[in-house]
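Dear colleagues,

For the upcoming journal club I promised to circulate an example of a predicted protein-ligand complex. I picked one with fe (ii) ion because it came up in last month's discussion. The inputs are reproduced below in full, followed by the predicted structure.
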Amino acid sequence: MPFRPEPTIPHGQPARTAIVYCNLGTPDEPTAPALRRYLAEFLGDPRVVEIPRLAWLPILHGIILRTRPAKSAAKYASIWTPEGSPLKVWTEKQATLLRGYLGERGHQVTVRHAMRYGNPSIPAVLDELKAQGVARVLVLPAYPQYSGTTTASVIDAVTAWSSPVRSLPELRFVNRYHDDPGYIQALARTIRAHWMSHGRGDHLVMSFHGVPERTLKLGDPYHCECRKTARLLGEALGLSQDRYTLTFQSRFGKAKWLEPYTEPTLVAMAQKGLKNVDVVCPGFTSDCLETLEEINMEARHAFLEAGGQQFQYIPCVNDSPEWIRALADLAERHLQGWPTQVADHPMELQATRERAQAMGARH
Ligand SMILES: C=CC1=C(C)c2cc3[nH]c(cc4nc(cc5[nH]c(cc1n2)c(C)c5CCC(=O)O)C(CCC(=O)O)=C4C)c(C)c3C=C
Ligand SMILES: [Fe+2]
Ligand SMILES: [Fe+2]
């Protein structure tokens, strides 16, 4: 490891450093009331819908929250698992595995997951960590590409929590890792493994969550970062530019969003004679409604209806070892300078020295 030596902490001391791995959040149940609560919080966030509050809140509460919750609940019901929402299941699993990886590397850190909307909320997790005496918190969003709508909103939630707190832990934020080699390799390996076991289509569509086009004009780097991820992923897979296409999905509302849109692109491809397509969603680090329902159900149906013959959905990086290793590397880089390495136990050190001396080693 090329890292400089870090201060160590004695054995048996509580971990005073924490990582909060933050994802978007998901409803507690696939029901209209649970969806109403979740969507009210999500779509009430001024980072997500940038319409003046006075105009937006009556539309949100008077129209959208009367109709959308039931429709969205039916979609969630179609992907729900016995353990709950896929986004929740994967996010929890990723945090557990990250804790294990970092522990194996000798770091004494608490790893918790938190959700920007819904539960466990960012303030609830931070309150708990503070009560445990945690002195340093690394906030690691589950979003590789920075967007004001997602990453900055996580930062808002943390700073809103911190503003009434007198004695604050040290805080660090990871803003982006869209071009991180570990992330790109984890994506490339997931895709190659899928090709090896299921065969390869004639074209790869890389579908990212969209944002309103206006945010690009206002300086949001999201579009740029999606393009860079797509280019690096294409290079890692050895694909020429005509073998893959970058698209944007999940448009919300009437405004223009980033183009090209995923589903119309797939339909146009099928109409032009493309028979076999592979679709991957590199901006999503865990499978969720937007990948399992919107892509693997709705977009699949549209492609096949338009004349396509085979639609292969390639799952997200989820709990793949390459991805967890990439997350651990990323966390390790951002933890630098914080005392997280557990010192070797003095008794064990002594025993090792004695063994080495008995074997004739020179110190
Ligand atoms: C990956 C990054 C994401 C960006 C950027 C993003 C922007 C964004 N989203 C909406 C509206 C909705 N998104 C919804 C679901 C959803 N969005 C993301 C990620 C990003 N969103 C994920 C991972 C999910 C799935 C959550 C899950 O529970 O599985 C939904 C809710 C579902 C529905 O009712 O359709 C909405 C609404 C906007 C407006 C926006 C940027 C302005
Ligand atoms: Fe979204
Ligand atoms: Fe969607």
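Two points we might discuss: The pocket of fe (ii) ion (ligand 3) is lined by residues 250, 290, 294 (CB under 6 Å). The chain has a mean pLDDT of 93.

See you all on Thursday,
B. R.
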